[in-house]
Amino acid sequence: VLLWLEGMTFYDAINHALTTMATGGFSTKNASIAFYDVPVIQYTIMLFMFIAGINYTVTYFALTGRFKKVWASDEFKAYIVFVFLIIAIVAFGIGSFHGYTVEESLRYAGFQVLSMITTTGYVVVDYTQWSYFLTLLFFLLLFMGACAGSTSGGIKIIRHLVFLKNTILEFKRLMHPSALIRTKIDKRLVPAKVMTHILVFLMIYLFTFMIGSLFMAYIFNDWDEPLLTAVGAVATSLGNVGPAIAELGPADNFSAVPIVGKWFLSFLMLLGRLELFTILILFTPYFWRAN
Questions:
Q1: Within the chain, which residues score under 70 in pLDDT?
Q2: What is residue 219's three-state secondary structure?
């Protein structure tokens, strides 16, 4: 309804609302949201991308007025801090060196950062044209993901948070080897089994990224930027984001990717969407012996 009132056709408004809340990113326009050069439309989609990236349990607590439980979520607090920190960095970068106004800098930065973190994949501007620093930053966001329990893809903030907390505490453990120092999330201990699962997930994710990048670099051997295009294609497919970098950036699409590359990237999208283990376990002898 908001998008319709702000200028979209009713058909376009329905489609964009559905794909925003699903963090799917498909648009009825080839230029994506850049087609609608209307700030209020972009702000509306930004708001709902942000909401779609929140754990739906936390959203439920907010809708039922249990705000203490909302703020008790370490992942939600990390999500807010990370989103606004990256938006500030990007806005400063494009405002200082690309002649945007303060409002444009914040809007473009906010939209593209939210689009990448929530893996929605909408585009309002080609971020690869800003600078090499910001291009690399957006590439790293392909690995981020929003909150667990949301519709976003990617690794998810909770895994990054647990890994970061455990890494910091490992230094304390080295300094005090006799102390019992356990990692906590939401004031609760993270079980050793969960910690192992997260560490294994991160290792498999990075290993899959490396092997996939090698394979796609071979596929893109005769392209202008084979290495950057390969790592971008694999990262965005695993994370279910959409736009990548180099020759598969936000102003391009995957139509020129060879057929074998399309099949492989499709497999990576499925693998990433089902969070690795569900698919990879099918390739282990343990699965077949158990059945």
A1: 290-291
A2: helix
30 token code pair: 């080839």
Residue 30, C-beta contacts closer than 8 angstroms, at least 6 positions apart: none
Distance separating alpha carbons of residues 122 and 112, to the nearest angstrom = 7
Kindly state the helix (H) or strand (E) to which residue 21 belongs, with its residue range: helix 10-21
Spatial separation of the C-alpha atoms in residues 127 and 129, rounded to whole Å = 5
Q: What are phi and psi of 188, to 5 degrees?
A: -120, 145
Query: Is residue 115 within 8 Å of residue 49, measured between CB atoms?
Result: yes
DSSP type of residue 184: E
Tokens encoding 69:
């439980």
pTM: 0.91
Which amino acid is residue 280, in one-letter code?
L
The answer to whether 127 and 177 are in contact (CB under 8 A) is no
Quickly tell me which residue has 């893809």 as its tokens.
153
Backbone angles phi, psi at 100, to 5 degrees: -75, 155
What percentage of the chain carries pLDDT values higher than 70?
A: 99
For 3, 97, 149, 253, the CA distances from 55, given in Å and listed in that order, are 24, 36, 4, 30
Q: How far apart are CA 249 and CA 127, in angstroms?
A: 8
| Separation CA 46–CA 33 (nearest Å) | 11
CA distance 38 to 242: 22
Distance CA 236, CA 245 (A): 9
CA dihedral 220, 224, 230, 236 (to 10 degrees): -120
Residue whose C-alpha is closest to residue 90's, from 38, 127, 63, 36: 127
Nearest to 144 by CA among 123, 127, 161, 128: 161
